[in-house]
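Below is a filled-in request sheet from our internal design queue. Each sheet records the structural input a requester submitted and the sequence that came back. We keep these sheets so that new team members can see what a complete request looks like end to end.

REQUESTER: design group, bay 2
PRIORITY: normal
MODE: inverse folding
CHAIN LENGTH: 85
BACKBONE (tokenized):
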């Protein structure tokens, strides 16, 4: 990945976009701190592609059909007034 200072990225934006399309994502820094990443549309689509709904995802879970037996504690709650005294 190539790193660009903000002012350099503004001055050479066309070159930055071309690098992004043919190389890896490009990092843009402000005051030596990495602030942004520019990536190709193809990579963006790959990262954000979601053709499955949440319900479909849950139905594909390997835990589907697994029964959970939860035993709850039926004892009385502790006396918090005694703790405050």
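RETURNED SEQUENCE:
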């Amino acid at each position: 990945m190539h790193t660009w200072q903000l002012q350099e990225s503004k001055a050479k934006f066309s070159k930055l976009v071309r690098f992004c399309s043919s190389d890896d994502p490009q990092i843009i820094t402000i005051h030596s701190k990495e602030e942004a990443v520019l990536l190709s549309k193809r990579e963006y689509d790959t990262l954000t592609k979601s053709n499955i709904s949440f319900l479909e995802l849950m139905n594909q879970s390997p835990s589907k059909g697994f029964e959970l037996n939860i035993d709850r504690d039926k004892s009385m709650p502790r006396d918090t007034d005694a703790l405050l005294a």
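SHEET NOTES:
- The mean pLDDT is 87.
- The beta strands are 2-5, 26-30, 33-38.
FILED BY: M.R.
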